[in-house]
Design a protein that fits this description.
- The structure is a homodimer of 229-residue chains.
- Chain A is α/β, with parallel strands linked by helices and 229 residues long.
- Chain A has a single domain, classed as Rossmann fold (3-Layer(aba) Sandwich).
- Chain A has seven helices and five strands, in the order E-H-E-H-E-H-E-H-H-E-H-H.
């Protein structure tokens, strides 16, 4: 009998998490996707997550509203702060950083995993073509995994060891796109822009759009995204 | 000039976190309290947190709604599960366990601390007279502190080191009560019961009531709580 493998997948609606979901499916996991509505300006991203979850046949897709906007401190959640459009500044953390976002997301994912009795969590973090957020680095995920196995009853009682999977962490954006295309990801369903128009068009100038454009260019495949510029 | 010390304090409305807040104040910290509304049956606890925050003069008190109830898995958030009344079973984790609750709470506290530029977080966890939850043990807090310092920009940029303070972790309930009384905590403002009446009376039989009663008895001071039994 084939052993059942299950995983919780953090799904943002972007290119990276869609590819990560496809990789988990390809590895034989039944996938439980979780998407956070954290006061980000672009709820368009959440709609994209729903489309991707359907397209890649998740067993379940949970939307979790979480209040990060009330803390402020990020251009992604604070309307008073402008999303930068002039390209990345490699010397500093960008103002699109949402304080310890991945830590909060993973903590929720772990809570759900524990209730589901699932020991695998996939996150589409990337430490190559990325915006420089510290909670995207391998050492953060290693530390989180240790913490998770001290926090969760299922681990403490010896029923399993929680594993945080970061399958695309060392890939370039071009490699991520090529991998996803091989696994059947429809990138026209994904959304990356930090500052889309009300109609959902990508601005083409924010860090996230720049990385996305560069990725498709370097992968040598057409970019299905509609950009304003 | 006296140096300004600031801390974020997790405040539940219970006896332990009220004492922890008083300790932080006594140590000279200006206190920013954070209370979570996580679908617990006893919103009476949140009202208690507000009274304590006022009484102990916090600089600010944030209430953060978080959706743990939708995951299920705990008698504290799931109305279909009964709160046990026959005393603790030391051989297993009780069904009042909310999956990785302290991990989620601390992650939010860290996000707020980062926005406030505060490097100290106090939590009233206790590993002596407690319910056996794994995320109340010192090794969990040590692991979380390491993770926090890898996740937060302020730490990665060398602006400070986040410290998780657990001042009552090795105290008995009686010691906690005696300490709090010395520091002026009014325990009639606090609420411990997992299953209060609609009028807010403590049941007197759940694990949390049992620990509270035992604490006052051993401390040799009157218990201001109104119990049903």
């Amino acid at each position: 009998m084939k052993q059942e493998k299950k995983a919780v997948i953090l799904l943002s609606g972007g290119l990276d998490s869609a590819t990560t979901l496809a990789i988990a499916r390809h590895q034989g996991y039944e996938c439980f996707a979780i998407t956070f509505q954290y006061g980000q300006r672009h709820s368009i991203e959440v709609e994209a997550a729903k489309r991707i979850a359907r397209s890649l046949k998740t067993a379940e897709h949970r939307l979790i509203p979480i209040d990060l906007a009330s803390f402020g401190g990020s251009a992604l959640t604070d309307p008073a702060m402008k999303v930068p459009k002039t390209g990345p500044d490699p010397s500093s953390i960008p103002i699109t950083y949402v304080p310890v976002r991945n830590l909060i997301f993973l903590s929720y994912a772990l809570a759900w995993a524990e209730v589901l009795k699932v020991f695998h969590i996939f996150i589409g973090a990337n430490a190559v073509d990325y915006s420089g957020y510290p909670d995207c680095r391998p050492e953060f995920f290693e530390a989180f995994q240790k913490t998770a196995n001290l926090a969760a009853v299922a681990a403490v009682e010896g029923k399993g060891i929680f594993q945080i999977h970061t399958p695309i962490i060392h890939m370039t954006k071009a490699e991520i796109i090529k991998t996803g295309l091989q696994l059947g990801v429809d990138y026209s369903l994904t959304h990356s822009c930090y500052d889309p128009t009300p109609q959902g068009l990508a601005c083409g100038l924010c860090d996230s759009c720049r990385l996305r454009k560069k990725g498709f260019r370097e992968a040598g495949v057409p970019d299905p995204t509609k950009y304003v510029s």
